[in-house]
Every structure is written in structure tokens, then in C-alpha cells.
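Quick one:
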Amino acid sequence: MYPNPNTIHPIAGYDKEIYVKPTITNPSIIVGEFTYIADSEFESHVSHLYPWNDDRLIIGKFCQIAAGVEFVMNGANHQMNAISTFPFYTLEGWDMAPPALSDLPLKGDTIIGNDVWIGQNAVILPGVHIGNGAIIGANSVVGSHVDDYTIVVGNPAKVLRKRFDDEMIALLLQFQWWDKSVNEINSLIPVLTCGDLEQARAELKKRLNG
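Output:
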């Protein structure tokens, strides 16, 4: 029996953890295989995603999203280059045409890499890019880009530290374990979960050079 990325409930008899990809209905949300959330559904965690803003939420493979996480999209932004930020055009009875998109602080797609752990109740703001292997601390508010294999915490989220040294990060980004077949990933589990980083480093080098 192999892991099936199209399974919605990967834990038998438990509906508060789901693989996200097979549940997505919004074409502006793209999620990779085996990414899960600690909830019974996902799309309510994405707010202000309106088709007229033409932005997308893109999440990689094998991400771990805790309960209460929110992805705030560009539709939450108000016009800031005028006297008032009040969105008259969205509310009935006010004589205002929608502003040009160039007058809105739109920040593009929100992009989450692979193997990213997002802690409980974290908020990811519009247009943020989070690199592969990053960790977002619980209750953090992320408004700036996060580098690969970096831990950020707080409001606003600040860098706590890199998870590994530069050589190890480069090896992992070259190896890209998340793009391998299920069979190969299964065989790699002893390397991916090894607490001896020097042993893991040696194995990565061996496999890359083999």
C-alpha cells in the first residue's frame, strides 16, 4: 500500500487533517501533493481572493499547515495613494467606480515552497514568498519574503535563524527530494529524518554524485 496524494483523509478515522490538493475547487489556489492542513477543509483559510485581482495562492508539496493559519490575499488591500482608504466602490449607494488596479497596492501571487511548516494561527500576508524548508512560528504575521530553510517568528515575523549551514541548504535545494517518486521518497525516509546532520550530509552528497 503506497501513499496516495488523492486521499483526502490520510489518517484513518480522523477528519481533522486532510491532504489539501484533492479538495481544491478554486482555480486560483494551486497546491502540491501531500501538503496537509490540520483541519477538515482548506479554502476558508484563504481570505480576500477575488478573481478581478488576478492573484493566486501557490503552495508546494509536503507542506505542513497547522490549525488556524490564514492566507490573506490582495483583495484585503485598500487604496492608499488617496486621502481616504475607505472602499466606497464596494458598498451599495456610494457613487464611486472601482479604482484602477494601478491605484491599489497589489503585491502579486503568494507563493509557498515545498516542505514548509506553518505554525498554528500564523497569518501570511499578500504577495509573500516563503522558500523551501522554511518554518513559520505559531502566531507569526509574515509580511516579507522568507528565504529557504529559514525560521521566522513574531509579529511582524523576523528571522530567528537558518535551519542549516549554507552547504547543507545548497545540497537540499539541488537534491529536491519532494519531486522524487513515492517509492524513492519512501527509501529516503531514513535520510530525511536522520538527526545526525553530518551523516545526512554525507548521504546527500553520495546520492548527488552517484
